[in-house]
Amino acid sequence: MNIPSRLPDVGTSIFSVMSKMALDNGAINLSQGFPDFSIDEKIIQLVSRYMLEGNNQYAPMPGTPALRTIIAQVVEATYGRKIDAETEITITAGATEGIFSIIAAFISASDEVILFDPSYDSYSPAIRLNGGIPVHINVYPPDFSIDWDAVRAKITPRTRMVMINTPHNPCGSVLHERDLLELEKIVLEHNLLVLSDEVYERLIFDGLTHQSVLRYPALASRSLAVFSFGKTFHATGWKAGYVVAPEYLTKEVRKTHQFIVFSVNTPVQLALAEYMRTPEHYQSLGKFYQQKRDFFLKQIEGSSFEPLPCSGSYFQVVSYKNISKKSDVAMAEDLTKNFKVAAIPVSVFYNDKTDNHLLRFCFAKKEETLAKAGEILRKI
Fold first, then answer.
1. Cα(344)–Cα(238) distance, rounded to whole angstroms?
2. If I label 19, which of 25, 85, 101, 255 is the partner at 20 to 30 A Cα–Cα?
3. Residues 294-325: pLDDT tens digits?
4. Going by CATH, does the domain composed of 57-278 fall within 3.40.640.10?
């Protein structure tokens, strides 16, 4: 049968490609964003306990009440915003499902969605699969800051939503208060929605404060914020996240969410609810990952790689302009095959494949892993 593809230009994810290349070549995998160290034994024991106690059937579609209740408490304590656990929080099968459910709920044929490249690779396909039109605005090194006048220039009568990501993957940059205030002005003036990808909310460094849309009442009233337990608790394979949004928006998200996955792993939800009752389990993460960032930077000190500022996430972007004029895709392949360290080329996150000769390394790894990689990188 001749079946036309709905995503004809989309192949295998760059993360899968580079991870397979790392495995095939015996390379240290600093490409895909997952930790190589164990998660807390306490939460594993909690999941096991809840399984043994018989909590193995469907959870409620929006999520277990226990987990939504503790999330509401954490949001209020963190961002000063009181939210209703029953009507404004939805537990999702990871942040990616949350993002897709939001787009499916609000984006129709020919609706335009503004996003900033380099952008995470699921954004554009999710928009296109739902009939929308991604409107790409490039941001550039070294700080990847947003030109809000450029955003205003891109708004048309068909613009429906603006997507932001802070702390940013792949760049490690963060939005500041002035950015959120500019965004607030724009969305209020043009009656737009905001999808805010905040999965690295706890991974922010150097004394900075995460600027969530939830901190700004007028902005929060038309925003959907997406979070990830996998990123927060080093358990990416559990695929558990959540969406926080006003009730009138949450109602629509739940309509799509229930037909995409219906509900999320029950014992994991109950374990997360209990684990989050101890604030130390998530409040120290910024310090933990800042130490890893600083350790990795120390390992490449004296090399020909130039690190760009990294204020959040667990990714360090480096320039290799002093080493080679190869494309970043070719450089990543060469690094993996010939030097046995895998990274992600940043150009793949740009719709127009802008190549600034940058590579992204994941430093969510054991110190011995980072030290081995650093020893190699210093010699290049």
1. 23
2. 101
3. 999 999 999 999 999 999 999 999 999 999 99
4. yes
Neighbours of 284 (CB within 10 A): 11
The helix/strand count (H/E) of the chain reads as 15, 13
User: What count of Cα atoms within 13 Å lies in the side-chain half-sphere of residue 176?
Assistant: 10
**pLDDT digits over 20-76, tens only?**
999 999 999 999 888 888 999 999 999 999 999 999 999 999 999 999 999 999 999
Cα–Cα distance measured from residue 192 to residue 213, given in angstroms and rounded to the nearest whole number? 14
Residue 329: strand, helix, or coil: helix
Confidence at residue 166, expressed as pLDDT on a 0 to 100 scale: 98
Six token digits for residue 313? 């996430």
Question: φ, ψ for residue 251 (rounded to 5)?
Answer: -55, -40
The residue extents of the domains of the chain are: 14-32+284-377, 57-278
- For residue 11, with 0-12 CB atoms within 10 Å meaning exposed, 13-18 middle and 19 or more buried, which class applies? exposed
Q: What six digits make up the tokens of 343?
A: 């990274």
Q: Rounded CA gap, 356 and 358, in Å?
A: 6
CA distance 374 to 215: 38
Spell out the alpha helix ranges (H) of the chain: 14-24, 41-52, 65-79, 94-106, 123-129, 148-154, 177-190, 217-220, 229-232, 247-260, 266-275, 280-283, 285-299, 328-339, 367-377
How far apart are the C-alpha atoms of 342 and 243, rounded to whole Å? 32
**Spatial distance between the Cα atoms of 83 and 215, rounded to a whole number of angstroms:** 12
14-32+284-377 adopts what CATH topology? Aspartate Aminotransferase, domain 1 (3.90.1150)
With 0-12 CB in 10 A as exposed, 13-18 as middle and 19+ as buried, what is 110? exposed
Q: Which DSSP state fits 58? A: P
What single-letter amino acid sits at 205?
Answer: F
Q: Which of 305, 323, 354, 311 is nearest to 30 (CA)?
A: 305
- Give pLDDT, residue 131: 97
Strand order in the sheet with 344-345: 306-307, 315-319, 358-362, 344-345
Can you list the residues of the chain whose pLDDT is less than 70? Answer: none
Peptide bond into 267 cis (omega under 30): no
Question: The dihedral of CA 134, 139, 140, 142: what is its sign?
Answer: negative
Residue 204: strand pairing partners: 312
What pTM was computed for the model?
0.96
